[in-house]
Amino acid sequence: MTVREIINLLEELGTMLDLKEDNPFKSRAYFNAARSLELYGGDVIELIRSGKIADEKGFGKALVEKLTELVQTGKMSYYEKLRAEIPDGLFDMLKIPGLGAKKVRAIYNELGIRSIGELEYACRENRLRDLSGFGQKSQDKILDGIGRFKKYSERFLIPVVEPQATDILNYMMQHHDLEQIQLAGSLRRRRETLKDIDLVGACPAEKRTAIMQYFVAYPGAETITGQGETKSSLVLNSGVSCDLRLVENSAFAFALHHFTGSKEHNTQMRQRAKAQNLTMNEYGLFAEGSAKSLPAPDESAVFKLLGLSFIPPELREAQGEIEAAGQGELPELPEESDLCGLLHMHTTWSDGAVSIAGMAEAAKQMGLSYIGITDHSRSAIYANGLSIERVHKQHEEIDRINAEHPDFVILKGIEADILPDGSLDYPDQVLATFDFVIASVHSSFNLSEEQMTERICKAISHPLVDILGHPTGRLLLAREPYPLRMEQVLETAARHNVAVEINANPHRLDLDWRWGRKAKELGLKTVICPDAHNPAGLQDFRYGVGIARKAWFSADRVLNTLSAGELQAWFRQRKGKP
Questions:
Q1: Who is most buried in 273, 373, 571, 575, counting CB within 10 A?
Q2: Rounded mean pLDDT for each run of 10 residues along the chain, 578 residues in total
Q3: For residue 458, is it left (φ>0), alpha (ψ between -120 and 50) or beta?
């Protein structure tokens, strides 16, 4: 136990007491003690071990006993007890500029937020805007601080990586000696979180040095971590790493396939090649005894050489895609252009930033023909959830806007809270007034796996529930899914013909794509929903399309590929209405 560790521990004790809203004089005593030890000119360890610290100002009997225990055993039971009572994420939140213990305590006590990821999500949903002691400026400042804190995180959400990946790709495409270049890696496969950016380029061997010099001179680079003729690496000013690999043009398709991955997919591809007496690597596909690769001008040709149809990058996860490609059974995956409308969005009626008309206009500008408004239900007090009276008033407003704009349809929806017992927070006569109902869990995440499963299954068994919202409750890089028997939930949804949402908010991307094959087996429908709280959030639907593709959903199983009339008919039909 060093002196610095003792000082840090005392400061942390003071912080923990502030977080617990203990006696402020008590927390100040620990901060003062830390300061005194920092300024002490002698041997602090010996001062404590000898007991002479009791003669120093500010060190009472209780504190002396705690420090003596710490020096003698390397532990302090009081510290460990207090530390166990406070969520780890609250300490991370204290690293955000402008967030002291008082504000973190308020955020935790009022909103139940336990991590930076949850805090960012809450800010983007305007949770802090109306919280006492905060406001719009505080919320914006916290978001800015979170961005700086996350800069050097190990993994990143797609919106952090994708813009810079696109920028550096466009930058590299300006080099006239590059014959081809594409993004590869987990971004191309549309994984939900990313570690780095991979670029694969093709050029003549004699041009590599100049191209690599151009790459490492990228204006957005912060650090050059490697520079060679075939591979160079940067750390960008976002904190994301970026690798560029260069190959001959004849090897480009093989390199692009290899560096797109996944590793497990590549292993299975090599095994398939081996079964056909071929050797496959990032430079080509070689017949036994030959040093020259079989020709493949593009990735489709690579797959064709092995008797496979083209496997889209999103499916390359060793989830049965090679077998399906060999049998011609890959699904027709949805494209962004297939979506006719978007459901699940919030307005100023609850916790959104703009009006219903504002969201409708933004959707029309995107070329969509309908939206479904789903403000929060009355249990969501923190989100200004709708009382029954306000539901009726909102419906009147939607009717008026629809009458004024006959070329665009606004559907009346609600994101109803699934209460801990599995019931919903409106009576049936109110739920029946909506065109569709999304049921979601927003509270009581600490139920057991059995309780949470029963809770959700009961809710989606309700005849007026059309869609299960963000099924696992996860927040990527922030909150783990709640315990849940997902297979049972999917089976219940299929039995009651309830669609399962793919929540396209990049903090959620939930349904997890890994459950897609089971959903397909059960014949489940999905809806790609942005969960937007402002017009810009509508664009998040793109991330949901990527997840739908990874989950093997064909376009005809995505409900919002239907027209407004077809979708309304589906909702009515599943409820047994004419």
A1: 373
A2: 87 90 84 87 89 92 94 92 89 84 91 91 90 89 83 81 96 97 98 96 97 97 93 91 97 98 96 96 94 96 98 97 97 97 97 95 98 96 93 98 96 98 97 98 95 98 98 91 96 98 97 93 96 95 98 97 98 88
A3: alpha
In the beta sheet, which residues pair with residue 343? 372
Domains of the chain: residue spans and CATH:
3-86 (1.10.150.110), 157-326 (3.30.460.10), 336-574 (3.20.20.140)
User: Token pair for residue 227?
Assistant: 């520079």
User: Contact, 456 vs 441, CB < 8 A?
Assistant: yes
At which residue do the structure tokens 């949804």 appear?
A: 493
Which residues make beta-bridge pairs with 501? Answer: 527
Cβ–Cβ under 8 Å, residues 220 and 232: no
Query: For residues 544 and 526, what is the distance between their CA atoms, to the nearest angstrom?
Result: 11
**What was the pLDDT predicted at 152?**
57
Helix (H) or strand (E) holding 216: helix 208-216
Backbone angles phi, psi at 311, to 5 degrees: -100, 115
Distance CA 484, CA 500 (A): 15
Q: Rounded distance, CA 25 to CA 429, Å?
A: 55
What H or E segment, with its residue span, contains residue 48? helix 44-50
Residue count (the chain):
578
Joined tokens for residue 434:
């909506």
Sign of torsion, CA 241 247 253 254? negative
Phi, psi of 546 (to 5 degrees): -60, -40
Q: Residue 408: what are its φ and ψ, rounded to 5°?
A: -140, 140
Q: Is the dihedral of CA 317, 318, 320, 324 positive or negative?
A: positive
Asked if the peptide bond before residue 554 counts as cis, ω within 30 degrees of 0, the response is: no
Q: What DSSP state is assigned to residue 44?
A: H
Report DSSP state, residue 418: B
